Amino acid sequence: MFDVTIIGCGVIGALLARKLSQYDLRILILERENDVAMGTTKANSAIVHAGYDPEPGTLMAKLNVQGSEQMEKLCRELDVEYRRCGSMVLAFSAEETATLKTLYDRGIKNGVKELRLLSGEEARTMEPALAETVRGALLAPTAAIVDPWGLCLAAAETAVRNGVELKRGSAVAGVEDLGDHYVVHTASGNYESRYLVNCAGVHGHEISAMVGESEWMPKHSRGEYYLLDKSSGDLVNHVIFQCPSALGKGVLVAPTVHGNLIVGPNAEPVEDGDDRATTQSGLDQVAAFGRKSVPSVDLRQSIRNFSGVRAVTSEEDFIIRPAKNSPRMLYVCGIKSPGLSAAPAIADYALEKLKEMGLAAEKKTVWSGKRTQIRFRKLSDSEKAELVRKDPRYGRIICRCETITEGEIIAAIHSPIPPCSIDGVKRRTGAGMGRCQGGFCGPRVLKILADELGKDPMEIVQDGSATWLLMEETKGGSGK
């Protein structure tokens, strides 16, 4: 019997699991995919919003500001890449200039610090690549960029090291409410739990329906992106937004913590929460809006297009409350933007809700919430030499674009949550994130995975289940 079962291991589920791992509780995370961070956490803008956009008084506003304030310390504890670069919202007309003042006033009410209204000339002085048509900007110095899947992985690893059980490949097929506990039926078996937390993202409504609830309806929104090569990474130094509209915060142009430039997303309604297709029309829309802010952005430097689906619902605010008909289930749903920014505070809030629902929890006397990761390319020459002396595998470069070594890949494979796919290694180490997108290192990563996991190379997938790369042997070895 588990005390708490979390359904879904995106960044919210992972951070809540880490928080719960501080207590003498038996905790389970059920993840339907073969890895963590496979939904919205994997495909988003990677922005830590300052908090001026949500309506004052909403849960979204409160948790955005709190989460943003916590994020830097959390990333330092988990050794996750983070950079406070600030953001600008641009105005191109008198009407949009008035919107900037509204956002400024809203931000002040929400408790956002250091906000400033800039003229167009001041904005271009700070960001010379901005369009000449920019009439003004709202500067938010506390905004930041982060590695979202790195944060999720680090939090989940820390939770597992502190006793949380993670079951991947465990899609939930049904939930039985037996009054004092639940039985959760999954692809990997059945699990009993006193409390459930629904962190299933775009599939949250499906989990709620399993206990007879239909408190909200999904309104999935897909956003498409360009990811540009590192040669474009310093085109802008801030996250550059346009004025928000009914479609969301609009297309942004922003640096990433990995040194690239990201442009996107648009907003397109989709029926299927797993519809992460990219389309020519969608990417054309992103290109047009991106060039409106930064005319010199060179989309020929794109090394990858991708899309993500936002967990938008019929409710405007985050949904963090007990289910009406099943009071031992906590909803943590509808976590659209600024969900990543609010994630640390959402975990705190969800824990308090569980306690209000009756969860008895005593803190452990021993708990370790820190985690470190070797990034070979960031070491000094002397540190590299010493590491290679101790383990020669750190002297063999597998990914040339990102300077990722065999030692780093093997360390990831033997981590608390080992990858089972090539993209799983990519998310943990960066191998394959460069200009060639794994064209050189992909086969080498596949072989290392197969060797270290003791698997047939044909069992290794690109990312999700059934994304096989090798189908059959077509050429024999020597002597055949």
Note the quaternary state here.
single chain
**How many β-strand runs?**
22
Total number of helices: 12
Strand content: 15-25%
The biggest beta sheet is recorded as:
8 strands, mixed
User: What is the share of helical residues?
Assistant: 25-40%
Q: Regions with pLDDT < 50 over 5+ consecutive residues? A: none
Structural class: alpha+beta
* Spatial gap, N to C terminus: 55 Å
**CA-based shape:** globular
Q: Report the mean per-residue pLDDT as an integer.
A: 96
Rg from Cα: 23 Å
Describe the secondary structure blueprint for this structure.
Layout (H helix, E strand, L loop, with lengths): L1 E6 L3 H10 L6 E4 L16 E2 L10 H20 L3 E2 L3 E5 L2 H17 L5 E4 H7 L9 E5 L3 E3 L1 H14 L3 E3 L4 E6 L4 E5 L2 E10 L5 H6 L11 E8 L10 E4 L9 E4 L5 E4 L3 E2 L10 H14 L8 E9 L8 E4 L6 E5 L5 H18 L24 H10 L6 E3 L4 E2 H8 L8 H8 L12 H12 L27
Parallel strand pairs: 1-2, 1-12, 2-9, 5-14, 12-20
Antiparallel strand pairs: 3-8, 4-8, 5-7, 6-7, 10-11, 11-12, 13-16, 13-17, 13-18, 15-16, 19-20, 21-22
Helix pairs in contact: 1-5, 1-8, 2-8, 10-12
